[in-house]
Design brief:
The protein is of the alpha+beta class. Helices cover 67% and strands 14% of the residues. A two-stranded antiparallel sheet has the order 1-2. A two-stranded antiparallel ribbon has the order 3-4.
Length: 112
């Protein structure tokens, strides 16, 4: 995601690192599952934090960019509420889960 806003990039990177840490802790490795209807798909994370950042860009930030004129300030507000230090807040977990749900919906839509 290309942006000149240093704060935005910093928060997005911090959020990606926090999501990655939570995934590793929860699953004991660099993977998570996506539910696509009745099918559960294991997603292996390639590239660590930068791989998670790519997913966050694609399934979260890009949607904001396409739908909101002031998307960067919206993203900064959401990412700020998503982190407490280096850890995810409840809101941060919910936002990530929403992106995971969108990944599952994308798989379902492409399968039809």
């Amino acid at each position: 995601m290309v942006t000149k806003d240093f704060r935005f990039n910093s928060l997005a990177n911090q959020y990606s690192a926090a999501v990655y840490a939570a995934i590793q802790k929860e699953n004991g490795g660099d993977w998570f599952t996506v539910n696509a209807g009745e099918q559960e798909i294991r997603v292996d994370i390639i590239g660590g934090v930068s791989g998670v950042r790519e997913l966050i860009d694609a399934y979260g930030l890009e949607a904001m960019k396409l739908n909101y004129p002031q998307w960067e300030s919206l993203a900064i507000a959401l990412l700020s509420k998503s982190l407490k230090g280096k850890r995810l807040t409840k809101a941060g977990r919910e936002i990530w889960q929403s992106m995971v749900n969108d990944m599952g919906a994308t798989v379902i839509a492409r399968g039809k």
